Amino acid sequence: MRIVFAGTPEFAAEALRALLAAGHEVALVLTQPDRPSGRGLALKPSPVKAVALAAGIEVFQPQTLKDPGAQARLREIGADLMVVAAYGLILPPPVLDTPRLGCINIHASLLPRWRGAAPIQRALLAGDNETGISIMQMEAGLDTGPVLLGESLLIAADETTGSLHDRLAALGGRLIVEALAALPLAAKAQPEQGVTYAAKIGKSEAAIDWSLPALEIERQVRAFNPAPGAVFTLDGAPVKVWRARAQDVSGAAPGTVLAADREGILVACGGGALLLLELQKAGGKRLGAAQFLAGTPVSVGAQLLPLSARD
């Protein structure tokens, strides 16, 4: 089977590796244009591009697939199927209709829950107990197509976006290989009930609001690890929280430091308290609470503030 693969981040790169390991013919790889990265802002190829170049596969990086020239290039390939995973560009109808068997997508949720751009983070923020991978036949709507194959996995109590991403990427790679081996598969229409949308994460969502319940803030910390990091203000400077644990204690105004020792920094919340276990000041390293306090003393009774709008 002659395949075009479209994807950009590491989640997609894992699927591309799985397809190549299974012996599939990938005739062309689509990925987003190289982006500036690092202090020098040098152009950096996407993880998918790196895998493709290492395998000697032609890489195509159009700014948009609405361009007639880009669409003509895809027609020239004569692909049987396009596999899409976190590509980041909209596939217009002419592209969806180009491969003989259409386009199928590897989506990191159990559709119809969490259609859209950030299904992993949204599942963690919502406190979902499980998520999974859906292999979906693509159509013009946003993740609305029928599901060909799916598998769930449980979300661990201490799961972060980083750890869940890696498990879902591995599952996606395995399922896309299984799906291609079993084609043609019966497509199952998504139910109309249970639809939720995983909007792109905004930077403002990273600011910790201590008036929220501790459990909700703990989910925020896990959902925004490794990026963008949940953040609050200490002595006028931003501090990111990378690990925290909700505690069933109370007794002070939200944002008040209840304890600060080797065990962590305990902060009162709108319900319960949050024990901060790993923190990072701007320009510094991630530190356990004991190390952080050694360089940045925090007094019991101090008030931790949300990140201000100008920050």
Automatic annotation (TrEMBL):
Record's catalysed reaction(s): L-methionyl-tRNA(fMet) + (6R)-10-formyltetrahydrofolate = N-formyl-L-methionyl-tRNA(fMet) + (6S)-5,6,7,8-tetrahydrofolate + H(+)
Top-level EC class: transferase
Keyword Transferase: yes
Residue stretches making up the Formyl transferase N-terminal domain: 1-180
Binding site for (6S)-5,6,7,8-tetrahydrofolate: S109, L110, L111, P112
One Pfam family cited in the UniProt record for this chain: Formyl_trans_C
Signal peptide: none
Gene Ontology CC, one term: cytosol
Domain Formyl transferase C-terminal: 200-295
E.C. number(s) listed in UniProt: 2.1.2.9
Recorded GO MF terms: methionyl-tRNA formyltransferase activity
InterPro entries per the UniProt record, alphabetical: Fmt, Formyl_trans_C, Formyl_trans_C_sf, Formyl_transf_N, Formyl_transf_N_sf, Formyl_transferase-like_C_sf, GART_AS, Met-tRNA-FMT_C
Entry keywords, A to Z: Protein biosynthesis, Transferase
Biological function: Attaches a formyl group to the free amino group of methionyl-tRNA(fMet). The formyl group appears to play a dual role in the initiator identity of N-formylmethionyl-tRNA by promoting its recognition by IF2 and preventing the misappropriation of this tRNA by the elongation apparatus.
Family note: Belongs to the Fmt family.
Cited HAMAP family: Formyl_trans
Protein name per the record: Methionyl-tRNA formyltransferase
Organism: Rhodocyclus tenuis
High-level lineage: Bacteria, Pseudomonadati, Pseudomonadota, Betaproteobacteria, Rhodocyclales
